[in-house]
Amino acid sequence: RLLRRFRDGDAAIPAFAEDYAFLIWGLVELFQADGDAAWLEWALELQRALDALFWDEREGGWFSTTGEDPSVLLRLKEDYDGAEPAASSVAALNLIALAQLTGNDDARAKAGRTLARYGPRLGRAARAVPMMLCALSAWHTPPSQIVLVSAADGGDALTRAVARHYLPASVVIPVREGEAQRRLAGVMPEVGEMRAIDGQPTAYVCQHFACQAPATSADALDAQLQPS
């Protein structure tokens, strides 16, 4: 479990749903930056905790509090994406990304139930829930993965090629051959057999891990990433 405050050696105050959601979001971004399986493993662990403590099985979405504090008489779900987006908006985006990374159907189903639960709010006051609208857009975009496999240091040209494209609904998966790849395959079995062709950094552009031909040059990867 997360705690919300730490100062002078003292950790206290059980975390709210937003604390879990924001940290998971950051971990997913870190994983896409360096491919360290530890980030993804931690994100999945925290998502399980978020669901266990805050998920509303009856109506979908996440309560802000656990309901364990007797002084909190009513559990609420924040639905305003202000200076800080609402926990349910961020968690829905997280689950869509985690579903793309791991193929977890339950994660995608929870995201779908949340979007359905907030549907009337989206129609009446869309400007108040921009992050939930981002999740809705991601939900309706075909999921894709861009796997960048390298045998050692390198792959910067392919990474720059990906960065030249606006791909908000894609997840990027850096993979380093060897022990790092074996550990990542424990969470994402599909990446276990992907290889750097002839020792060159290699990109695989996939939908549901059904991939196009491997690309070993920035030009070839650019061509695959162009809108169809």
List its traits:
globular; alpha+beta; 228 residues; 6 strands; 4-stranded mixed sheet; two-stranded antiparallel sheet
Polypeptide structure, described:
With 228 residues, the chain is of the alpha+beta class. The protein is 46% helix and 14% strand. It has a four-stranded mixed β-sheet, with helices on both faces. Strands 1-2 form a two-stranded antiparallel sheet. A hairpin with a 2-residue loop joins strand 1 and strand 2. Helix 3 runs antiparallel to helix 4 and helix 3 packs parallel to helix 6. The radius of gyration is 19 Å and the shape is globular. The termini are far apart. The model has no long low-confidence stretch (mean pLDDT 93).
Helix content percent band:
40-55%
**What is the CA-CA span between the terminal residues?**
44 Å
Multimeric state of these chains?
A: single chain
Helix vs. strand class: alpha+beta
Q: What's the pLDDT, averaged over the residues?
A: 93
Q: Main sheet: which strands, in order across? A: 4-3-5-6
In percent, how much strand structure appears in the residues?
A: 5-15%
Low-confidence stretches: none
Order of helices and strands: EEHHHHHHEHEHEEH
Count all strands and give the number.
6
Please count the helical segments: 9
Q: What would the principal axes of the Cα set say about the shape?
A: globular
Sheet having the most strands: 4 strands, mixed
Using the CA coordinates, give the radius of gyration. 19 Å
